[in-house]
Model the fold of this input.
Amino acid sequence: MARRRNAAREARRAARRAPRPPDAPSPWPFVGMGLMAASLFLHGASVLVAPWWGVVLLLVLWVAAFVVCVRWWTPHPRRVPLVAVVSVGVWFVVLLVGAVLGGW
Done:
C-alpha cells in the first residue's frame, strides 16, 4: 500500500516537472493587421472625395490605430481586429459627416 502511494506521489511530481509545449500563436492579430491594411486603402482612397486636410486627418487617425494594434499584438491579441473595425467605422463616419455638413 505504501509503495502505491509513493509511486502515485512520484508520478504527480514528474507530471508537475514535465515541460509544457508552447501554446499555438493566436490568429487574431494577423486578422486585425489584414483589416488594418484594408482600412489603409480606404483612408488613402478618400483623396478622391475629401479635401486634403480631411485625408490628412484620416491618415493621422489610421496611424494612431496602427500604433495601438502593434502595441496590443501580444498582450491583447483579440482586440486587434476590433481596432481595425473601429478604424473602418471612423472612416465611414468622417466621410459621411464631411459629405453632409461639409459638402465634400
About this structure: The CA atoms of residues 8 and 14 lie 10 Å apart. The mean pLDDT is 90. The chain is about 75% helix and 0% strand. The chain has one domain: 28-101.
